[in-house]
Specification:
The chain is an alpha/beta fold. 37% of the residues lie in helices and 18% in strands. It has one domain: Aldolase class I (TIM Barrel), CATH 3.20.20.70. The longest helix is centred in the N-terminal third of the chain and has 15 residues, at 15-29. The mean pLDDT is 96. Bound molecules: 1,3-dihydroxyacetonephosphate.
Length: 238
C-alpha cells in the first residue's frame, strides 16, 4: 500500500492562498506523485482552489455532519462533500473532540455518513498527556477504536495523534509512535485495508526518522503542511 501524507490546514488559508499553494505544490511534484499518496484538507471555502486538475493529490474535508440532511444550520453533509470532489474526511480530530465536545456516538454517526457517501474516513485518535502519564494509553486507544465497532468496513485510515504532541513542537519519539502502532494493529487485527498514520509536530526535520523508526504508513500534518514545499519534503518528494 502507498504511504499517505495528509495536510490538515485547520482554520487557515484564504482562497487566494490556496490557489498559490496548489500552484507551488504542483510545480514541486512534477508529473506524478510517484509512489506516495498526497491529500490536502483545506477549509470548505477553498476546495475549488485546492483541487488539482491533474489529480496528483486528493481532497479531504476537516469535518462533516453526523446528519444526512435537513434543518442543521451551519452543517455540511457527506453527500455535499462528495459532490465537491472530496475523497477523504477527517473524523474524531482531537480539536473536534476537545474543543467542540464531539463524543463517540456522534463520531460513529459521522463515519456512517462518510461511508454512505462513498468517502473514506481518516479516523483520528490519541491519548492526552495525563492519560499517558497515568498509564492509560492502551485503554484509551481501545475505547477510541471501539467507536468503529459498527463501521460497515472498507478501506480505513487511522491517524494516531497524541494530544500532547499536537501543535506543541514536541513530537512523539519514533519508539513511542511504534508502540502506539503496535497497540492499534492489535486492536484492528480483524480488519483489512487499514493504514495507520502518525500526527503531532511532524516537520521536514523529524519526518524521516519518525517514519523509519515507527513503521507508520504516513503522516497527518498540521502546521508544517501550510508550506507546500515543506509538505512535499515531508512526503519525501525530490
Ligand atoms: P501539528 O502538525 O501542527 O502538530 O498538528 C497536528 C494535527 O493536529 C494534524 O491534524
Amino acid at each position: 500500500m502507498k504511504r499517505l501524507f495528509v495536510a490538515n490546514w485547520k482554520m487557515n488559508s484564504t482562497r487566494a492562498q490556496a490557489r498559490l499553494y496548489a500552484r507551488v505544490l504542483g510545480e514541486r511534484m512534477g508529473v506524478s506523485s510517484g509512489d506516495v499518496e498526497l491529500v490536502v484538507a483545506p477549509p470548505f471555502t477553498a476546495f475549488e482552489e485546492t483541487r488539482d486538475p491533474e489529480g496528483r493529490w486528493a481532497l479531504a474535508a476537516q469535518n462533516v455532519s453526523s446528519h444526512r440532511e435537513g434543518p442543521f444550520t451551519g452543517e455540511i453533509s457527506a453527500k455535499m462533500l462528495a459532490e465537491a470532489g472530496c475523497r477523504y474526511v477527517l473524523v474524531g480530530h482531537s480539536e473536534r473532540r476537545h474543543l467542540f465536545g464531539e463524543h463517540p456516538p456522534t463520531l460513529a454517526a459521522k463515519i456512517a455518513r462518510v461511508r454512505e457517501a462513498g468517502l473514506l474516513p481518516i479516523y483520528c485518535l490519541g491519548e492526552t498527556e495525563e492519560e499517558r502519564i497515568t498509564g492509560r494509553e492502551e485503554q484509551v486507544l481501545a475505547s477510541q477504536v471501539a467507536t468503529l465497532e459498527h463501521d460497515a468496513g472498507g478501506p480505513l485510515v487511522i491517524a494516531y495523534e497524541p494530544v500532547w504532541a499536537i501543535g506543541t513542537g514536541r513530537a512523539a519519539t519514533p519508539a513511542d509512535a511504534a508502540q502506539a502502532r503496535e497497540i492499534l494493529q492489535g486492536l484492528l487485527s480483524g480488519r483489512r485495508d487499514v493504514r495507520i498514520l502518525y500526527g503531532g509536530s511532524v516537520t521536514a526535520v523529524n519526518a524521516q526518522a519518525l517514519l523509519q523508526g515507527s513503521g507508520m504508513d504516513g503522516f497527518l500534518i498540521g502546521g508544517a503542511s501550510l508550506d507546500p514545499s515543506g509538505f512535499a519534503s515531508i512526503a519525501g518528494l525530490p
